From TrEMBL:
This is beta-N-acetylhexosaminidase. Belongs to the glycosyl hydrolase 20 family. GO terms for cellular component: membrane. Keywords: Glycoprotein, Glycosidase, Hydrolase, Signal. It catalyses: Hydrolysis of terminal non-reducing N-acetyl-D-hexosamine residues in N-acetyl-beta-D-hexosaminides. Residues 1-17 form the signal peptide. It comes from Cerrena zonata. GO terms for biological process: carbohydrate metabolic process; glycosaminoglycan metabolic process. Its EC number is 3.2.1.52.
Length: 341
C-alpha cells in the first residue's frame, strides 16, 4: 500500500515542460493547472517582443482567440535598475513565481526579466484546445556563464538579414546572449562603409550587402532579446575582398598560389591567399578608417579583431618585407609578427 502511494506521489511532480537551459532552481508547488489569458501579452512592450519570437507567435495568437475568462491576465515585473546596459557581465538573474493568482517576475536588470519571460514562454503548454501552465511554480535562475555565444560567418556565404534574425530568435529561445558576427573574410566584404565606399566591391552581388540600416536593424533586433552583437573584422590574415578593389598595396601575396605540398611554404590556409601587409603605412590608415566606422556602428564594448592563421611565407611576396629583412639580417618573421603582439 505504501509503495503504491509513493509511486503516485512520484508522478505528481512529473510535469511535461522542462525549461532549457535548466534553471538553477525550479520548484513545482502543486499540479493545479493555471489557465492563462494571453491577452496580457498585448499590454507590455517587453511582452510584445517575446510574442514576436517565431515559435511564440502562432501559439499566442491562437490563444488570444480562445481567451479564457477568469484566467491570469496580468504579470508584475519588477526591475531594480533598468539603466544597466546590455554588456558583458550584465546581471541576468531573475525570480519567476507563478501561482493561481499572479505571475511575478523580479530581476536586477531588464535583461534578467527578458530571460524570465523566455522561461515563462517555455512553461506554457497547449493541450486539448487550452493554453495553461501545469501548476504553481517558483523559479530562481541566473546563467552559469556571462558569455553564451554563437559565431556566425557571413563572409563565405552571404546570410540575409532575415536569416540572421532567425538565428537570433533561436539563440534567444535557449538564452544564448552573444552573436559573434564574423562579417568579413578573404572571400567577401559585404559591409557598406561610408569612409571607404570602394570596399563594397568585395561583395558577391549588389543585393548581397549589409547597409548601415541593416546592421542597426540586426543590432536592435538582438538587443530587444537580450543578445549582444560583437563584430569581427578579421585581419591581418583573412583579408583580401574589398581591399583588393580599393588599394592592392595594402596586401601581401594576393596573387600567390596558396598551397604547396610543404606546409611551411603555404601562403594561406585556404584559397585565395592574401594578408594585410603590416609593413605598409597605408594599411594602418585604412584600418583606422575601418575601425572608426565599424566601432561606431556597434554598441558592444567588445570588438573582435580576428588575428588568426597568419602564414609566414605570405610576407615573402611583399617587397616591403624583403627590404625590411635586407636592411638588417638579424630581423625575422617572428620579429615582424611581434609588431602586432
Ligand atoms: C513585431 O514584429 C512585427 C512584424 O515583424 C514588427 O513590425 C514589430 O515592430 C515587432 N514588434 C516589436 C515590439 O519588436
Ligand atoms: C543603475 O545602473 C547604472 C548603470 O550601471 C549605474 O550607473 C547606476 O548607478 C545604477 N543605479 C543604482 C540606483 O544602482
Ligand atoms: C611609414 O611611416 C614612418 C613614420 O612616419 C616612416 O618613417 C616610414 O618611412 C614610412 N614607411 C613607408 C614605407 O612609407
Ligand atoms: C621567407 O623569408 C624569410 C626571411 O627572409 C626566410 O628566412 C625564409 O626562408 C623565406 N621562406 C621561403 C619559403 O622562402
Ligand atoms: C637589427 O635587428 C635586431 C633584431 O630585431 C635588433 O636587435 C638590432 O638592434 C637591429 N640592428 C640595427 C642596427 O638596427
Amino acid at each position: 500500500m505504501k509503495l503504491a502511494l509513493l509511486t503516485v506521489l512520484a508522478t505528481v511532480g512529473a510535469v511535461k515542460v522542462n525549461p532549457l537551459p535548466q534553471p538553477q532552481s525550479i520548484e513545482w508547488l502543486n499540479e493545479n493547472a493555471i489557465v492563462f489569458n494571453p491577452l496580457f501579452w498585448k499590454q507590455n512592450t517587453i511582452l510584445k517582443l517575446l510574442k514576436n519570437q517565431s515559435l511564440a507567435t502562432s501559439r499566442f495568437q491562437q490563444a488570444r482567440l480562445k481567451g479564457e475568462n477568469g484566467a491570469i491576465d496580468s504579470i508584475t515585473i519588477t526591475i531594480e535598475n533598468s539603466s544597466i546596459p546590455l554588456q558583458l557581465g550584465a546581471d541576468e538573474s531573475y525570480n519567476l513565481i507563478i501561482d493561481n493568482n499572479a505571475i511575478n517576475i523580479d530581476s536586477v536588470s531588464t535583461w534578467g526579466s527578458i530571460q524570465a519571460l523566455k522561461t515563462l514562454q517555455q512553461l506554457v503548454v497547449y493541450e486539448k484546445g487550452q493554453f495553461f501552465i501545469e501548476g504553481s511554480v517558483r523559479i530562481e535562475d541566473h546563467p552559469n556563464y556571462p558569455h553564451r555565444g554563437v559565431m556566425l560567418d557571413s563572409a563565405r556565404n552571404f546570410l540575409s538579414v532575415k536569416k540572421i534574425k532567425e538565428q537570433i530568435d533561436i539563440m534567444s529561445l535557449v538564452k544564448l546572449n552573444v552573436l559573434h558576427w564574423h562579417i568579413t573574410d578573404t572571400q567577401l566584404w559585404p559591409l557598406q562603409l561610408e569612409s571607404i565606399p570602394g570596399m563594397i566591391e568585395g561583395a558577391y552581388l549588389e543585393r548581397e550587402q549589409y547597409s548601415k540600416n541593416d546592421v542597426e536593424d540586426i543590432i536592435n533586433y538582438a538587443y530587444e532579446r537580450g543578445i549582444r552583437v560583437i563584430p569581427e573584422i578579421d585581419m591581418p590574415g583573412h583579408s583580401r575582398a574589398g581591399y583588393i578593389n580599393v588599394n592592392e598595396d595594402v596586401l601581401a601575396c594576393q596573387h600567390s598560389w596558396w598551397s604547396n605540398d610543404d606546409y611551411s611554404l603555404h601562403t594561406a590556409v585556404e584559397p585565395p591567399a592574401s594578408q594585410l601587409d603590416i609593413l605598409n603605412n597605408e594599411t594602418y590608415l585604412m584600418v583606422e578608417k575601418i575601425y572608426n566606422e565599424v566601432s561606431g556602428l556597434f554598441q558592444d564594448y567588445v570588438f573582435h579583431v580576428g588575428a588568426d592563421e597568419l602564414q609566414a611565407n605570405c610576407y615573402n611576396y611583399s617587397q616591403l618585407f624583403v627590404d625590411w629583412i635586407k636592411a638588417n639580417l638579424s630581423r625575422t618573421y617572428q620579429g615582424l609578427k611581434s609588431i602586432l603582439d
